[in-house]
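Final report, closing paragraph on structural work. Over the funding period we assembled a curated collection of sequence-structure pairs, and we close with a single example.
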Amino acid sequence: MNQMADFLTLDKNHFQRLGSKTRGDKIIWTSVILLALVSLLAVYSSTGLLAYKMYKGNTEIYLFKQFAFIVVGVLIIYFAHQVNYIIYSKVAKILFLVSIPLLIYTLFFGVKLNEGSRWIRLPIINLTFQTSDLAKLALFMYLSRLLSKKQEVIKDFYQGFLPVMAPVAIVCLLIAPANLSTALLVGATSMMLMFIGRVSTKHLLITIGIALVPVIILICAAVVRHGSSDGITEVVKTEGRSHLFIRVDTWINRVETFIYGSKVMNDEDAYQVNQAKIAIAKGGWIGLGPGNSQQRNFLPHPYSDFIYAIIIEEYGLAGAAFVIFIYLLFLFRSIRIFKRCPFAFGAFLALGLSFTLAIQALANMAVNVNLFPVTGVTLPLISMGGSSFLFTCLAIGIILSVARNVEQLEGKKQIQDES
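Its predicted structure, as stored:
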């Protein structure tokens, strides 16, 4: 008994020491834990059939994998938040310069899945990761650094706007051919961050106008295609056509499907949307209950792109509202860090990274409820683990690093005031 008491005391002291080293916004930490719990439940439920087929009845395999990703992710958050965020300013330019050749390599030689070349395969360990995740993180770190250093000349077009806008344009143009939705989200988030960073509104409006031109062309192309097609048609064959042409055709088809509904037989995007609508309709106010989803057996990618529809089916509109509340709470606490941080780089860093996570979450949920055309973006911290999950954890760790340093500065100031 004495040995057991000594062990419990030692274990308690260990967790107390670990807790004393864990700083940052406690509400953000709580939000991460809650989203991780939702992820475990949703991934376990949505991967049951897939696991049964792939692993001969072992339906818990993806649950254990997701738990492992969460453990690794929490460790990434912990170690990242222990680093002084000033160090991230020093490595931001290096990461950005590394991400550019990786994006180019991915564009031409990456692993092609679903007609998009978004991944590269790492040698030796034989794992794939999405280079746009690294590029997004590097871009917002580098953009925060530029905005903090260019404040005195930020209104000037040549000295302020162009040096800040150039990295955004490069990353978006390299991501767009394989993943247009991610490029648009990165661009929109960058515009918001630059607006808060006092970039000239006139320059931003001109940039937005230029960026809207290809979007308007896509919409017009979808309208023209719909008007010129009659009746049910077969899926257009893609053999012999260039990769870029195939992607443009996919974009137009998605916009047409979103506006009018699909006239093409075997259209996967329309099928996903219809199955998601059925899941939402079955969910009602309180849902069917944990693990009782029926559409997980019919909805493609219920564990990643359309996991929010499964959450609504099992937990109803109440559960869906709870998830939205957690993301908005996370964004609100990050904005609070932005206001409290006395240094420009830390303020922009926390705001930029939180914006990109919140906007990605809202975009994913909008697709699931058919308020936005089908995209390939996942639901941060909830969709089944992968490189996106780990990079999301790294971004949260950096936000908490800013919060930890803000707390330390406020603590020192309070001691000085009291003395």
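The two ends are 48 Å apart (CA to CA). Residues 133 and 388 are 6 Å apart (CA to CA). We thank the funder for supporting this effort.
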